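hey
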């Protein structure tokens, strides 16, 4: 095939991207100035990235796409719709079940998208030449502002990307290339006066519209934070055990979104509303088996069971205290500490005090001993 005009080249790339399963393929200048660098610098300077030290150490490279690769001229920005086929917030009213973020209920999108991005990159290079590099979330490229520049959508008040066609449910990936591709019109912010995402946030993680304090965000707390989750946030987690969809799910633009085309991105039945009791019994091999090919696997069994125990503490279900009692003997301090907190919420005060009396002296880990000291039996329920 002979490509005679630049426009035909962009259309051919779009068609190939569609064939590969992408729902969106648009183009942006990679070398033009932008203001995203200042927003990132402010975010890092205010410490809002919490323990995500990579954000700080890569800030300079992340400041602009050409910081990642000076040769980049254009960006091919790809999106894959992962719209759920169910109401992702319905599980929040089932306190004995765990809520796992929609993106993590299916297969790991990083793996899925990376393969396809590489296939697209090979195809573009074979057809049109030029060096290129592939990025999907794990690389420190600022994909949301780049997607906005390519007109995939705009960064909404919740700071995530919003698309007119796919609402807030888009996985993003990018290919940077030396090719001079014709840029698409930039996305225009179309949130209007809506502030549903800000108002729904259980932890008040938005200091202002379009600004997120990751340290307060349940996605950060349950996924990125290795230490025990600060006490002030635990009651606010509800039954969210891996991530949080609230601000995404209430976005009115979702009404235009369809269910994910890609079967691998659909929720696995076992992860839609799993029983907290069952999850609390996972040992390492069982955890790995249940979350094979799932992004959840990355946080490891101990951190995951920690989250499950906070949800058990929030369940208001006394029968679940038996699971927390059993986990007081878990080898992982982060699990024992969360079990203490859950029992403080579920046991009658006298029973908890007797337990505290028996157990505190035997506890060797200072952080878990501190959990015993701080626990306030049944006060919060
Ligand atoms: Fe708040 Fe949840 Fe959105 Fe994080 S994901 S900002 S906790 S609503």
């Amino acid at each position: 095939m002979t490509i005679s005009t630049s426009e035909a080249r962009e259309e051919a790339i779009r068609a190939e991207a569609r064939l590969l399963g992408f729902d969106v393929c648009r183009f942006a200048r990679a070398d033009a100035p932008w203001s995203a660098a200042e927003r990132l610098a402010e975010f890092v300077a205010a410490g809002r990235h919490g323990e995500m030290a990579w954000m700080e150490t890569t800030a300079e490279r992340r400041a602009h796409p050409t910081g990642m690769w000076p040769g980049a001229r254009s960006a091919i920005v790809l999106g894959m719709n992962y719209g759920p086929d169910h109401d992702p917030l319905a599980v929040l009213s089932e306190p004995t079940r765990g809520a796992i973020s929609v993106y993590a209920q299916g297969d790991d999108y990083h793996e899925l998208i990376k393969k396809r991005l590489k296939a697209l990159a090979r195809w573009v290079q074979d057809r049109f030449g030029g060096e290129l590099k592939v990025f999907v979330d794990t690389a420190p490229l600022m994909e949301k502002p780049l997607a906005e520049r390519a007109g995939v959508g705009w960064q909404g008040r919740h700071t995530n990307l919003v698309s007119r066609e796919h609402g807030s449910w888009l996985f993003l990936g990018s290919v940077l290339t030396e090719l001079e591709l014709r840029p698409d019109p930039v996305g225009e912010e179309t949130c209007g006066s809506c502030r549903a995402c800000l108002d729904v946030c259980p932890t008040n993680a938005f200091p202002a519209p379009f600004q997120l304090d990751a340290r307060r965000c349940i996605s950060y707390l349950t996924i990125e934070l290795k230490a025990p989750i600060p006490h002030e946030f635990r009651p606010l987690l509800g039954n969210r055990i891996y991530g949080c969809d609230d601000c995404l799910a209430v976005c009115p633009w979702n009404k235009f979104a369809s269910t994910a085309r890609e079967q691998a991105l659909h929720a696995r039945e076992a992860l839609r509303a799993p029983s907290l009791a069952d999850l609390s019994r996972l040992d390492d091999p069982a955890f790995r088996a249940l979350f094979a090919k799932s992004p959840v696997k990355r946080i490891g069994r101990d951190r995951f069971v920690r989250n499950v125990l906070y949800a058990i503490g929030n369940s208001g279900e006394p029968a679940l205290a038996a699971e927390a009692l059993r986990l007081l003997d878990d080898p992982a301090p982060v699990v024992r500490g969360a079990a203490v907190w859950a029992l403080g919420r579920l046991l009658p005060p006298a029973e908890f005090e007797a337990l505290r009396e028996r157990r505190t002296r035997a506890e060797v880990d200072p952080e878990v001993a501190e959990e015993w000291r701080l626990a306030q039996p049944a006060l919060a329920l």
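The mean pLDDT is 92. Residues 158, 200-203, 205, 212, 217-219, 244, 246-247 surround iron/sulfur cluster (CB under 6 Å).
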